[in-house]
Amino acid sequence: MIRRRTALSVSAAGLLAVPLLTGCGSTPHPGAAAVVGKDRITVAQLQNQVEDVRKAQRSSPQGRQLLAGSARLGQDTLVRLIQYRVIEAAGRDNGIDVTRRELQERREEVEKLLGGPAAVDNRFLAAGIAPDQVDQELSAGLVRAKLEKKLGQARAVDELMKTSEALRVDVNPRYGTWDAKRGTARTVQEPWLRPAEQPAPEQPA
């Protein structure tokens, strides 16, 4: 029976108008929504991700409901993009990666579990993830599951926190202040470092 999570649970504050941005630390990062190690997540990248989701939501039969339920989409998306980078770095440090074949097999498993490609797109869209962003979400979930299998759940959580701290994540204060131990912005009430072995959620936490 398939029990891996198929989406990250992310809850965050709302999307705000963004001028030139400055990180929460002492170093300014004009045009950046966040900096993860040496990797900048630009405002343009964030806005493109958000617009992809909005476009898919507007074309959905449940569009009005989806739009109304995703007022926090901007920060939710930014937190998710940061989490992907933290998970990828932790996996790399521990010799873990995901092959195309593994990703394809995981996609097929999820489609079988949820009832086909359209059902997968709808489920992830309800979680604020556009159809063309699903593979990235699945890949992160696979890396996290492998990390837990290799290290055990408790050590995997410690490794993710350590990696988050080492990367010195710098989030623009308009989106909150990064909490390395919780793996999200301080405004979020629910930690993201939860076991990978969970059923797919109906919607974001």
UniProtKB/TrEMBL annotation:
Residues making up the signal peptide according to the UniProt record: 1-22
Pfam families: SurA_N_3 (PF13624)
Region (Disordered): 181-205
InterPro entries: TAT_signal (IPR006311), Trigger_fact/SurA_dom_sf (IPR027304)
Keyword entries, A-Z: Signal
Compositional bias of kind Low complexity: 195-205
Protein name: SurA N-terminal domain-containing protein
Organism from which the protein derives: Streptomyces hesseae
